[in-house]
Specification:
The protein has helices at 19-28, 44-58, 64-71, 77-80, 85-91, 93-109, 117-137, 143-150, 158-161, 169-184. It is mainly alpha-helical.
Length: 185
């Protein structure tokens, strides 16, 4: 990692995880394998901010630590990249195991317990809503196609939808760190 940390993918230590590395990596990992409209790629960092904002829209009374669950839901991708779901399924348990261990280490690093099942379902729902928004706004899907893969569209306020307009890498990285710090504060 740029921080100088060496992360063992098979046995990741929370001591080797730094927020700066996560934000740097996620801001440089393209969602949709870079096949999106716009001057800039739509990064996993920006996707994570969108998911967190959708989570706040769905559950305004949630706690800051619950907000971190939304923001960090794809954090392992700072190391392993954003692999599309069909390929993840083909790779199977080996990949999923690496991803689970990384997320567990990330949670331990930042003092988060595993989310309760209801929160985990809400994070997944927000992730699917974000994927639907991204599919239609950025990846060329029709509304019907997006609904088939990600579920029906949900009404979101414009400030949340605006998070789906791709940003330069530095902005995505800085805003990811700022939001993490606001939630962890």
């Amino acid at each position: 990692m740029l921080s100088g940390r060496r992360l063992d993918l098979l046995d990741p230590s929370p001591l080797d995880i730094e927020l700066a590395d996560i934000a740097h990596g996620l801001a440089r990992v393209a969602r949709w394998n870079g096949q999106t409209a716009g001057e800039h790629v739509f990064s996993v960092a920006q996707h994570s901010l969108l998911v967190e904002a959708i989570g706040l829209h769905l559950r305004p009374e949630r706690t800051a630590s619950q907000g971190l669950e939304f923001l960090l839901h794809d954090a392992p991708e700072y190391v392993v990249g954003d692999i599309i779901s069909p390929l993840k399924a083909a790779i199977g348990d080996a990949y999923k195991g690496v991803e689970r261990r990384l997320l567990a280490a990330i949670r331990r690093r930042f003092g988060l317990d595993a989310p309760d099942p209801a929160l985990a379902r809400l994070v997944k729902r927000a992730d699917r809503i974000a994927a639907h928004v991204e599919a239609v706004r950025l990846a060329g899907f029709t509304g019907e196609e997006a609904a088939r893969y990600f579920g029906r569209a949900e009404a979101l306020p414009e400030p949340v939808l605006a998070l789906a307009d791709p940003w330069p890498t530095a902005r995505a990285q800085d805003r990811y760190i700022a939001r993490f710090e606001a939630l962890a504060g």
